[in-house]
Amino acid sequence: MKTAAAVLVLAAVPWTDSPLRRLAGGEGDGRDPAFDVALNPAPLRDLCDAKIRTYYVDAHTETPLAQGNAKAAGQLYLACGVPVQDPRRADTTLRFHAGHFQVLHRID
To answer: Which residues make beta-bridge pairs with 105?
Structure first.
């Protein structure tokens, strides 16, 4: 009986904008993942082949959601590097503001 009730409830859920649709295998993200905020990952993509050992993402002026998305993008595109919390320990420093990344500091 509980299973039938659950099926009826799920059948009534609108799937168009639901997180359940993404879990069920909706459209793929494409070349870049779908972030929760406007985010241009092009500078990160350009750094993918660089030999980055450590990097710091400065997003302190952004909302917590934007900060999280910026840091997640860094981990995705700069997977060969280690994110650090102290900019003095980073060989690459990135600033994220208003949806754009800017490379501020790079040590080769």
So the answer is: 93
Spatial separation of the C-alpha atoms in residues 78 and 56, rounded to whole Å: 11
- Give the span between the Cα atoms of 89 and 82, in whole angstroms: 10
Nearest to 74 by CA among 22, 10, 50: 50
Q: What is the model's pLDDT at position 46?
A: 85
For residues 81 and 52, the answer to whether their CB atoms sit within 8 Å is yes
* Residues 53-78, mean pLDDT to the nearest whole number: 94
Beta strand 92-97 with 82-83: parallel, antiparallel or unpaired?
unpaired
Question: CB–CB of 65/102 below 8 Å?
Answer: no
Give, as one character, the DSSP assignment of residue 98: T
Residue 84 reports pLDDT greater than 90: yes
